[in-house]
Design a protein that fits this description.
The protein starts with 7 loop residues before the first helix and ends with a helix. The protein is an alpha+beta fold. It is 42% helix and 29% strand.
Length: 564
């Protein structure tokens, strides 16, 4: 049958549709190429129908080498090193595999790159037509995961090697992780520990309530002492410290437990013997004072009372026990609030918050330096252990001044000052050494002495180095050394082994004097003396010949006279 002629309007509509389709294709292509992830379309036979620029850039293969090529025969599979690609492709078409990750390849710049491939089925009228694969560079994620894994391994190694019991518990106090020391302390195996809760470890209900309330309020426990044990028969006295930490975006309690049963028993024995306690208290070589903190209506520390002090505390402060007993510190020491240290605040934290303190401070009131340890034996009370370190501080000042003078001398001395470790590496290099050898301190420190030794002298000088370390000589030596510019200099060396308290050599200190000019002058003087000696011999020889000549003339004259 003859085809019907299309009307003008039909032709226009058709052309318009074709144009719209072409524009749509162009827009699609532009979007397709601008996507940062790699895209590739495959038909059901594994033939590559379309790729974008990002894909070619990621895998380092040109588009012309891929389009209309069978993916199994293309350079792509070889590049990606995918094992059993046909089997994997069949699983993808059946919807049984959607992700391939990570795939390691080398980029065009020969750098290691990790790719993740996600696949999706292309369907028309519910019938699978092909596969679209999205390829993404996940190198940063993989590297981050590796770092996280490394950090985890380091954490677990440290966690396991700590010699006392450490446990990680979630906010519900259920076990997340326990180290070997924890299992050993409570005499439980890992299987039983998996369902363990921290609150199940307490044997005293009141102590458990107090500990859990403090943990909830302060998010920490500090030196909390009570009986613990999974079973009554296996209980022990424990010192508990806990703190809240964040890990993997969640809050956990890191809890350490130390068995101090032996110390507890020792304290009980000590308490039973008041006389022995008194003897210890009185004869302590530290100042000891027991105090009670005084608070205002808001519970803030405002003063404290002396309950008891020992004899040494009296000697430190210059006050008598009767001046202390039951009195406020602001009465005993009226100027304490003018002191540079806020003693009441510091001791208040120790007594009220159970925060142990250890610090050094200068008291303007007593004009002395003290090393102080403060802790709370019970709520509202605190003990101070005090050492007078005024003489130590003064001695340290003198040592520091001596060090400064020594450093100034080393800096300004015309002698090169060099220190070495046992491996012949330079650890110190003063300005004079820089001037002699031409190397800056930065260039020299960490390098071996071979830096300034000529190759032909290496064997002999290394032998000398061993002699110095063995303390068998080598303290004085004259060597020819080489500078940074290649100039040979004659140097006078004074070497001293550095000895520790165990009489072991830890290194060597050297003083270096550049005697190049002096040696040159000596050589010149020697040369001049040799020349003078030669001239002298020559002159003496001439004088002898003149004498002989005169004698001969005299003899001839005598003969002539006798003949006539």
């Amino acid at each position: 049958m003859p085809q019907k002629k299309q009307t003008k309007k039909q032709i226009e509509n058709k052309n318009s549709a074709i144009k719209a389709c072409e524009e749509s294709n162009l827009e699609y292509k532009e979007i397709f190429d601008q996507i940062k992830d790699g895209l590739v379309f495959l038909n059901l036979r594994g033939k590559i129908k379309k790729t974008n620029k990002a894909f070619c850039k990621l895998v380092g293969v040109k588009e012309k080498d891929l389009i209309n090529k069978n993916v199994f025969l293309s350079p792509l599979v070889k590049k990606l090193k995918i094992e059993n690609p046909r089997s994997i492709f069949k699983k993808i078409i059946k919807g049984k595999k959607k992700v391939l990750s990570p795939i390691e390849i080398k980029s065009p710049a020969k750098k290691k790159v990790y790719l993740e491939i996600r696949t999706s089925l292309v369907k028309r009228s519910k019938k699978v037509q092909g596969v679209v694969a999205i390829i993404r560079n996940v190198s940063q994620r993989i590297e981050a995961q590796k770092k996280i894994q490394d950090n985890r391994e380091k954490y677990y190694n440290l966690f396991e090697k700590i010699p006392f019991a450490i446990g990680l518990f979630n906010k519900n106090l259920k076990v997340r992780e326990l180290n070997e020391a924890f299992l050993k302390l409570f005499k439980i195996d890992k299987g039983k520990a998996e369902n363990l809760k921290f609150n199940e470890l307490f044997l005293d209900k009141k102590e458990k309530t107090r500990a859990l309330a403090e943990l909830k309020k302060l998010k920490a426990l500090n030196n909390f002492q009570t009986k613990l044990g999974v079973e009554e028969a296996k209980h022990f006295w424990a010192n508990i410290n806990a703190t809240e930490i964040e890990m993997e975006g969640q809050a956990f309690y890191l809890i350490s437990i130390i068995d101090f049963s032996r110390r507890k028993k020792a304290l009980e024995v000590l308490q039973k013997s008041e006389q022995r306690y008194r003897s210890l208290f009185v004869n302590m070589i530290q100042g000891f004072a027991l105090h009670k903190i005084i608070t205002d209506k808001k519970g803030r520390p405002r003063d404290y009372v002396f309950i008891e002090v020992n004899d040494y505390y009296e000697r430190l402060t210059g006050l008598k026990k009767e001046d202390f007993g039951g009195r406020l510190v602001t009465e005993v020491m009226p100027d304490i609030k003018k002191d540079s240290i806020d003693w009441i605040k510091i001791y208040g934290e120790a007594a009220l918050k159970n925060k142990s303190k250890r610090f050094e401070a200068y008291s303007k009131n007593l004009k002395k330096w003290f090393r102080i340890s403060a802790y709370s034996p019970s709520p509202g009370y605190f003990v101070t252990l005090v050492d007078d370190i005024t003489e130590q501080k003064e001695a340290q000042k003198l040592i520091n001044k001596a060090k400064q003078r020594l450093e100034l001398h080393v800096k300004n001395t015309p002698l090169g000052v060099i220190e070495w470790d046992k491996d012949f590496k330079i650890t110190r290099w003063n300005p004079a050494a820089e001037k002699i050898f031409g190397y800056t301190k930065k260039e020299a420190v960490g390098k071996t002495g071979l830096l300034i030794i000529r190759k032909k002298d290496k064997k002999e000088l290394l032998k000398l180095w061993k002699t110095i370390l063995a303390k068998k000589g080598g303290e004085r030596a004259v060597n020819e050394n080489i500078t940074k510019e290649g100039e040979v200099k004659t140097c006078d060396w004074y070497n001293t082994p550095l000895i520790n308290q165990k009489n072991k050599v830890m290194g060597v200190a050297s003083l270096v004097l550049d005697i190049t000019e002096r040696v040159k002058m000596q050589q010149q003087l020697k040369s001049n003396l040799e020349e003078l000696e030669a001239m002298n011999k020559l002159m003496v020889g001439r004088e002898l010949k003149m004498v002989e000549l005169k004698d001969r003339i005299n003899q001839l004259e005598f003969i002539l006279k006798n003949q006539t």
